[in-house]
Structure formats: structure tokens, C-alpha cells
Amino acid sequence: AAAADLAGRHVVISAGGTREPLDPVRFLGNRSSGKQGYALARTAVARGARVTLVVANTGLADPAGADVVRVETAQQLHEAVFKAAADADAVVMAAAVADFRPARYAAGKIKKKDGEEPAPLELVRNPDILAELSAARPKPGQVVVGFAAETDDVLANGLAKLTRKGCDLLVVNEVGEHKTFGSEQNEAVVLAPDGTRTPVPYGPKEALADVVWDLVLQRW
Ligand code: PMT
Predict the structure, then answer these.
(1) What residue spans carry the region label Phosphopantothenate--cysteine ligase (predicted)?
(2) pLDDT in tens, 81-132
């Protein structure tokens, strides 16, 4: 898609994985590299969109032509995505967001004490950014896209997640050795509430990104 078919549109993309701090040296995190989100950003820039990329903890260089906002935690991602979404024509949540965070943050490094059992880790819920955004739609006509990385019952879990989150499209990718997390490649099925399923064969993350933009364009 060489055409500037996204010209005049503002799109917001989240990429990477959130980190939920336990103390100054430790966090709960996940294996997202950010590559899928960056591929979405690069393809959107190439197709003429104004792009805001909200990045959680990646080691990747800022993509040319995108406005980059860096965050660490799910709560910070929530705030940054909602701020950018106010005038966005589409929001694509490719980030892996922690559903829970430690209930308490220890200001000093947590120590192990000889002969003592470790204290149980208490967690509290994080905001569900995708579900909140799907319900709020800060800009009329805004298209909201979610991702789901699944290990089993991939399609059934994807369909349930599409309904639960209330988004317009859900990109379901199966966790595998040479795809999804960390890889240059991906393979997916894009689900829509009308029952439409768009399979995207194994290939570079840019190819999946371009299919996502094609489907977003159809919804505008
Ligand atoms: O970064 P890479 O290494 O390239 O890997 C890409 C990816 C695997 C991270 C990406 O393709 C992907 O699937 N991202 C979503 C990961 C996931 O498992 O999401 P989830 O099932 O926990 O959440 C579903 C959707 O809700 C996601 O769009 C997520 O951004 C969103 N969510 C989740 C929890 C939460 N509290 N708020 C959210 O908005």
C-alpha cells in the first residue's frame, strides 16, 4: 500500500509491555518487544497518517515520523493513550498490558530474611484500557482495535475477548516459537463483531499491520 490512503487521519498505537514495579529494582513484566506496534507505526506513517506511538519499555529506536510517548506502567499507559485518543480516528492496542499490579510498592529493596518464608505477593487490578476506550469513544467514529495473544483455544478465547472488550476489530495471534512475542514474524486472524474473520498468513509484522490498516479504512 504505497498510496497515502491514511492521509488526514490521526492514529494512536500502543507498543511494548508494561512493567509493574515491586521495589526500586524489581518489576512484573512480559515478553513483548514492541515490534508489532512499531510495524503498525511505520506502515501508518508510510500511508500518510499522523501517528502517536505510546511505548512501554522497548529497546527499539523511535520510528521516523511518529510522535513517541514513553511510559512504564499500565496506569501511565492508560493516561497517555486516553490523552492521545481525544482526537484520534483510530486506536490500536498492540501493547501487552499487565492486568494486575503489586498492591504495594516498597520504597526500599525488599530483603530476604534467613529462615523466613517469602511474603505472598498481593495484586490489585489495573484499568482495562481497551475496554474503557471502546465504551468511551472520545472522538465520534473512532475505530478501536485490540490484540490478543493466546496459547490455547485461540479462536474461542479471541471471540470471547472481542465481545468482552467491545472493540471493532480484534487481532488474535497465537503464541509460538517463531511468531508473536519478540519475533520479526507473526500470523493472525482478525475478528470483527459481524462475524467476519480475516486470516493473515505467517509473514513479516508489517504485512499484518497493513491488513489492520486496510480493515480500519473500511470501517471509516
Ligand atoms: O511486541 P512484540 O514482541 O512484537 O509482540 C506482539 C504482541 C504479542 C505483544 C502483540 O501482537 C499482542 O498480541 N498484544 C496483546 C497481548 C495480549 O496478550 O493482550 P491481552 O490478551 O492481555 O489483552 C487484550 C487486549 O486488551 C490488548 O489489545 C491489550 O493491549 C488490551 N489491554 C489488556 C489489559 C489491560 N489492562 N488493558 C488493555 O488495554
Answers:
(1) 11-220
(2) 999 999 999 999 999 999 999 999 999 999 988 888 888 999 999 999 999 9
- Residue 120 makes CB contacts below 8 A (sequence gap 6+) with none
CB 181 within 8 A of CB 149: yes
Domains of the chain as residue ranges with CATH: 10-107+121-219 (3.40.50.10300)
Q: Is the CB of 148 under 6 A from ligand 1?
A: yes
Residue whose CA lies nearest to ligand 1 atom number 24: 148
What is the residue-wise DSSP string for 130-141? HHHHHHH-SSTT
The verdict on ipTM greater than 0.95 is yes
Task: Tell me what pLDDT residue 118 has.
Answer: 85
Give the distance (Å) from ligand 1 centre to CA of residue 36. Answer: 10
122 Cα: distance to centroid of ligand 1 (angstroms): 23
Residue partners of 204: CB distance under 8 A and separation at least 6: 39, 184, 185, 186
Which residue owns the Cα nearest ligand 1 atom 36? 128
